[in-house]
TrEMBL record:
InterPro entries: Integrin_alpha_N
Lineage: unclassified sequences, metagenomes, ecological metagenomes
Name of this chain's protein: Uncharacterized protein
Length: 182
């Protein structure tokens, strides 16, 4: 369960629902969107982690926080967007091993300014920053060029172009023509 102030994980033990853990958003930020689950840590036994985005109150310029919690609710990673923004984020990050680093990367998209960024557990800084993004669209991650690596699909809110990018080989795949009315 997510509110702007906290995230709570509940466990279902044969029909008995109990609170597993609760984490509050740090530093006067508020959670946005929905949580995403993925394997962002390199581990002998993969364990699912929960990732959320957080921002200052709407209209206050600040870097987004991308927060990762382990299965016990402990904060294990905290990244910041490369640019300050004052609007909405995509709200929901995407998680997949787009760089083939061994662990899943976190991909977010936001506006004001338009950006799509890739983060991983090995670095505090974004691994890749694209100068396009949107505030209400979660980046899609799928193998669109049949190379057995997930690719990133994200729109440019300014011109309505959908970009497909191969993060593994660090190459653009294709761009659509502008989508009318976008």
């Amino acid at each position: 369960a997510v509110s702007k102030d906290s995230i709570k994980a509940y466990f279902n033990n044969h029909g008995n629902i109990t609170l597993g853990w609760c984490a509050e958003v740090p530093d006067n930020y508020e959670f946005t969107g929905l949580p995403t689950i993925g394997y962002i840590q390199l581990a002998l036994i993969p364990v699912l982690d929960v990732v959320m985005t957080a921002r200052k109150s709407y209209g206050i310029s600040s870097n987004l926080k991308i927060l990762a919690y382990d299965c016990n609710g402990s904060l294990i990673h905290e990244w910041q967007s490369s640019e300050q923004q004052s609007g909405r984020t995509s709200g929901t990050p995407s998680i997949e091993n787009v760089l083939s680093s061994g662990a899943d990367e976190v991909v977010i998209s936001y506006r004001y300014p338009n950006r799509t960024e890739i983060f991983n557990a090995q670095s505090a800084l974004p691994q890749k920053v694209f100068n396009y993004g949107a505030k209400t669209v979660t980046p899609a991650l799928a193998d669109v060029n049949n190379d057995n690596h997930p690719d990133i699909l994200a729109p440019d809110i300014n011109n309505g172009i959908l970009h497909a990018y191969d993060a593994y080989y660090d190459n653009p795949i294709w761009d659509t023509d502008p989508i009318q009315g976008y």
